[in-house]
User: What shape does this take?
Amino acid sequence: MKVIYLHGFASGPGSKKARYFREKLEEKGVEMSIPDLASGDFEHLTITGQLQVIAREAAGGPVCLIGSSLGGYLAALFAAIHPDGVRQVALLAPAFSFASIFAASIGPEGVDEWRRTGKLSIFHYGAGAMRSLGYQLAEDSAQYVDFPDFKQPALIYHGSRDASVPVSLSERFSAGRPNLTLRVVDS
Assistant: This one.
C-alpha cells in the first residue's frame, strides 16, 4: 500500500521530517511519496488546491497518509472526503482549526493588512527565504470544517509544549472517537 507524506505549511518535500520518514519506511520496503502540496506556487496556495494535489497522488488508492501540522489537517480532511481511498492516518501535531490558528499567529492587524493588500510575506522553510502568500488562502480555508470527521484508524502524536499548534486541539478532536489514539509527548 502506498504511503503519502503531507508536509507542513511553508515547507516542502525536502523537509528534514519528510526525508526521515522516507528513509525509515524505505528501509522496511514501504513506498512513500512526498508531493509538493503548493505545486511550486506558494503565492497562490489554497486548501482546495492542496487537496487536489493529494487526490492526484492518491489516484488508484488505497493509501495511508502521514501528515505534519497543516499536512495533518489536510490528511484528516482528505480521509473524511475519501473514506474508501484512505486506509489509515498518522497525524503529527495536526493543525486543526487552521484558519483560526493562522489568523491568531499574525494577529488582527496582520490579517487586516493581508486582506487589504492581498499579500503576506512569510518565511518559507522549504525555500529558505521569504515568500509572498495571497489572501485566497484565508478565503478558501473558511469553507472547511475545523475538525474533519473521518472513521479510518488514526494515530496522533502531539507535543505537550507545541507553540504553533496547541495540543488542546488534538485532545478535543480525539475525545470520544474510538478510531483515534492520541499520544501526547513531552516536546
Q: What stands out?
A: The first strand starts at residue 2 and ends at 6. The chain is about 35% helix and 25% strand.
